[in-house]
Structure formats: C-alpha cells, structure tokens
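Filed under: proteins

Residues; backbone shape codes:
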Amino acid sequence: MHTWKVFSFNAMSKKIYNKPPLSFVAQLAQLQGRNLQVKDATKAIQYLQSISYYRLSAYFLPYQQTKDTFNAGVNFNQIVQTYMFDKDLRLLVFDCIERLEITIRTQFIYTMALHYKDAHWQDNKAIFKQPFYNRVGNLVDPYNDLQNIISKAKSNRKPEVFIKHYIDTYQSPSNPPSWMCLELLTMGELSHIYRGLRNNEDKKRIASFFDVHHKVFTSWLHTLTYVRNLCAHHSRLWNRDLAIEPNRLLKPKGNWVNIRYQNNKRMFYFLCVLKYMLDRANPTNTLANKVDDLFNKYPSVPIKYIGIPSDGKGNLLNWKNEPLWQQ
C-alpha cells in the first residue's frame, strides 16, 4: 500500500508532454521571440533544416541567464559557432583516442606475449579472472568473452583477411596468435579484457608504459571508451559533465597540471589525460598547438565551459603555462 502511494504521487506530479511540432519557420520565430538575434533568416533556417532545433538547443543554456530567454546581444551565429567548435573538438579528441587505442593495443599484446613467452597467451584461462556477477547482477566472464569474439571472427562468412589466412594455413593452435586476435577488439572490449586480467602485475606492466598506476589506467581506459562513443555518435563534449570520470592523477611521473585544473568531470581534464598519454605514445605530438589553434579559431565561444578554471575574477587561467602543455 505504501509503495502504491509513492508511485501514485510521482505519477500525479509529472506533466503531460503536449508540445506540438513546429515548422522550421516557426522554430526560428520562436527563437527570435526568446530574444535571439538573427541577421540572416534564410541561412538560419538552412541550419535548422540540417542540424535540427533540438540538437542546437543543447548549446543554448550558457547563453540564457533566464530560462528560455537569451541574454542581450546573443545572436544565432554565436550558437552555430559554438556548435562548430564542439564538432571540431570532437574530431580532435577522436583522432587522439584512435592514436592511443593503437598504442594501448600494441602494449597490451606484446607486454603479455613477452612476459608469458607465449604468442597465444589469450587462450590461457588462468590469466583471467574467474567469472563473477557485477553489482547489477550481470555475469562478467573476461576469458569466455574474449574467446567468443575470436570464435565469431573465425566463423564469419567473410572473415578478416588475416584471420582467414591463419585458418587456411595453420592446423594448430586453433586460434590465431594474440597480435591477430586483439586486433579484433574494440576500445571498449580492450578495456573490458584489461579489467579482466587476474594478476595485477600484468596490469602494472601494461600501465607502466604510460607512467600511471594500474587502477588509474583502468579508469582512463573506461573513460576513453565512453568519450570515444560520444564522438562516434556526434554527441556534445562542450559544456558536458562526463558520466564516466577519469580518476585524478595524484602522483604523476612527468609533466602535469596543478590542482586548479583537476575538475575531472569536464573535458579539459580529459584533454590533459590525452596529452599525458600521448606524451608517452608519441613524444613529438602537437596536441598543445592543435588545442590552441582550436580555441583561437572560435574566439566568441566561451571555452570555460569545457572546464578551464578562472582566477575568481572572471579571467581564465592560462592553461598553456602548465608544464603538461608546454612544448
């Protein structure tokens, strides 16, 4: 009875969604009615037709001190510029993650293969955690999960060329070597298999290439996967709290940022994670210049919303002065 009362109250407190669909002309009129300045209505409608009102609306909030009313002087072009900034940020981040994913896979494969002196270490069940149920009751079985991926790749009607070559050429072992098998894994699957290693010493050997504790590395892999998926689905990075936060790096072994930049809910901290890892994977990387160029390309976009702190007087701190970001 008590449960029914709570449900009944919640149901009664919710509203009925009754907003009607609007034509593109009506959408623009609504924005103008909310104090958004529009210099070129034809061009604005073209943007609404190609991007959609709803997607653009995610960029409205920082420009509205009062809900559904744009601050004085805000124009449609500023919204589009913010959207384009986010798009370019996403492309930059996605490129960095791709580079890191390849290095992580390489270190994973060869660290394990050389330590165990076994090209087929992925087939050694003892290397992985025993199956267990996680907090939400789902079975986690890293060894069998990996074996299932390999099995599906082998039985695929059109297998990868390198998988087909192995099957056609070698009688045993049944599975290809680890440097072929792990090429089949997505970033998320790599993260899952890393977490599934039984021995922390294995994790430490892999993480040591990036100069981080294995628990931090586990967290960073999880966040890399999450942000990669955001990029792949064209989701917003600007003005977003990360649902999967990367652990803070409390004991860096190289150049890092000071504590004022440690807001790990926001994208700038994640950019710092990318830079720290890239400095190990590719010491001559030019990420600092690319980030600086991106910020300069969009001077009207308030970059503080990606997590760059201020001095308390409204002035952004100069992130380029941080040791991590100095070339």
